[in-house]
Amino acid sequence: MELQSFTLPNGIRLVHCSAQSPVAHCGIFIHAGSRDETATEHGIAHFIEHTIFKGTEKRNVFQVLNRLENVGADLNAYTTKEETCIYASFLSEFYDRTLELFQDIFFHSIFPEKELEREKQVVMDEIRSYQDTPAEQIFDDFEDLVFTGHPLGKNILGSSGSLKKLKRDDIIQFIHRNYSLDEVVIASVGNIPFKKLVKLVNKFFSDQPGRGHSHPRIPFQNYKPFISNVKKKTSQVHCLVGAPAYDYGHECRIPLALLNNMLGGPIMNSRLSLALRERNGLTYHNESNYSAYSDAGIIHIYFGTELMQYEKALAIVHKELKRLREEKLTGIQLHTIKKQIIGQLAIAQESNLAAMLAIGKSYLLQNRFDPVEMIIARIQTTTSEELAKIANEVFEEKQLSMLTFKVTKTT
């Protein structure tokens, strides 16, 4: 994957990957998310993602939505703890139209009061939907406990209470404080000459003045392991076991991703899937996840099971973690898990949309994108000894925390 990049005088970075496809993918990435909110702004980063489409100085909400979707394009956005992204998939002939709309949305959204109040109801419905799904809510609750007192622990959606208090002025202030142009990346994967793309980006973005400023984020410290049991009216017990892990730039991030994939990645023959589901029939769903932030990380194992099987399932999880700490992989086992994740990487490369999103995030966090060949090389040099060392660091028994949603009512 060959990338070309360009930086505008106002600091906005452009990165492009040529793809011989009739469909192009482009996104504007802003290095601002829920961790950048103040105590009175809970949920505002996500709310901006919703309301930035609700009208600009020259377009109403319907004109914004129709601008791309009337030509068959897909306009979307997302918010994480560290970034906000507006992106689109479209026929390559519509690069001009897409970039013009991005510019209009990004710099000229007006956030009409009437639309803000209407969209609050939409987001509140999203929050209620999330609260009705304990298998999702437990992940955010766990991170809130791991990162206690730190912005990384904040729920991205906010709460009904915090949402009701948000005003238009709060949105404007958050944008001007956090949307620094030297922390904005435009990423593209599509069939367009790079010189033409640079010309278009210059046309729409170069005359925009800088706003906001680069702001230091306070790293998380003082983690304290915990065991928390919360009563929920559910039909299952939901459980998370985990701990802090390596940040995005750490030299062991890729080996830990390899270890996580073997333990409970999106594969049917992961260790957790085989032990919990195939051999014992204890769970329908189990997984392990590793999330790397710019200056922190977290890894956690999830499973849901019936109350009578909970203790057995939990014991199996701890048994698998102990195996990781104490039993080095054989040469055959190491070779197999490497082939497995390399195959997954190759399949992921087939998605140009996924590639664009990965490129944008990587440039946002570290101003570069590691090609898949470099990642594969790092995987290939990983040894059993290194994985055992990582397992003992990350899954050290005394450092593990646990959150359980216990059943109070069955159906």
N to C succession of SSEs:
EEEHHEEHHHHHEHEEHHEEHHHHHE
Structural class: alpha+beta
What is the mean pLDDT? 94
Low-confidence stretches: none
Using the alpha-carbon principal axes, give the shape. globular
CATH level-3 fold name of the largest domain: Cytochrome Bc1 Complex, Chain A, domain 1
Rg over alpha carbons: 23 Å
How many domains is the backbone divided into?
A: 2
User: For the record, what is the CATH homologous superfamily label of the largest domain?
Assistant: Metalloenzyme, LuxS/M16 peptidase-like
User: What is the CATH class designation of the largest domain?
Assistant: Alpha Beta
Distance between the termini: 52 Å
Strand order of the largest sheet: 1-2-6-3-5-4
- How many individual β-strands? 11
Give structural notes.
The chain folds into two domains: 203 residues, Metalloenzyme, LuxS/M16 peptidase-like (Cytochrome Bc1 Complex, Chain A, domain 1); 181 residues, Cytochrome Bc1 Complex, Chain A, domain 1 (2-Layer Sandwich). It contains 15 helices and eleven strands. With 411 residues, it is an alpha+beta fold. It is globular. A hairpin with a 4-residue loop joins strand 4 and strand 5. The strands form two sheets. It has a six-stranded mixed sheet with strand order 1-2-6-3-5-4, sandwiched between helices. Strands 7-11-8-10-9 form a five-stranded mixed sheet, with helices on both faces.
Can you summarize this structure?
The chain has 15 helices and eleven strands. It is an alpha+beta fold and 411 residues long.
